[in-house]
Structures are given as structure tokens and as C-alpha cells.
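Memo to structure team: turn this sequence into C-alpha cells by end of day. - J.P.
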Amino acid sequence: MDHNSYKTTNANNATAEKAWVLVDAKDQVLGRVASQIARVLRGKHKPSYTPQTDMGDHVVVINAEKVKMTGKKWDNRFMFFYSGYPGGQKQVSPKMMVQKHPARLIEHSVRGMLPKNTMGRQLFRSLHVYAGTEHPHAAQQPKEIKF
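Reply from structure team:
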């Protein structure tokens, strides 16, 4: 028996195959769709997943302004931001955030589900969120996936 035939190979940045994926967030619950997007960004859906390598795909999210939240979370939940200066703490409800910047609600949710290190910041660059149905990534021919 050839012992080299059972060798385990780890993927690296050179062998990682990154595809483009399109996700329609219309009428989907924010937390559920964000966790699935984070899973695809990380590359955990691939059989060749390696934790220390950027294996994930580029994710294009459309209809970010039409995402749903259950219960009274639109008004009762708050996201906090701090500028670093005294008195620089701000709180924003999801309703206010969607009115001003619709894409940031999904970006904020997905960023919280990625690793808090250099890898997480690198993975976040592969996320492209748009409020409407139009996006400038048609040349990459993203394949649509349903969650």
C-alpha cells in the first residue's frame, strides 16, 4: 500500500479558489442571513476549508434595505459607536440606520460574526452590500444562492 496516497493537504492562498456569489436579502431575517453570509465568506461551506487561510468567496448582497427583523428589534435594539473622544459615544437603532445607510446594517451584523483579527478584516473586504437590486459586479458573473 502506498503511504503517500493518504497524505492530507492543506489549502493555502495560492490554491484557494474564490468564486463570486449573489445573495438576495429581500424578506430574509437579518441574523439568519448574516450568519450564512459569514459562513460563505469564511469558506466553511467548502470541503477544502482550512481555518488559517482565506478560502471564502466574494459575496454580493442586494436588496439590503428590504431585510426583516423579528419582534420589536427595529425600535428596541441599539448599536453603539464610540469615536474615542469624551462624549463621543453614539447609539443608533436599526430603523435609523436603514433610513440613512441601508447597507451598513448587514455589514455590521456580518462583521460581528467574523473573527476579530487580521483574517476577519481581510475576509470583510470580500463582502459587497448594495441597498437596491443593481450592483456593479455583473462582469464577475456571480451565481445566486438561496439560504
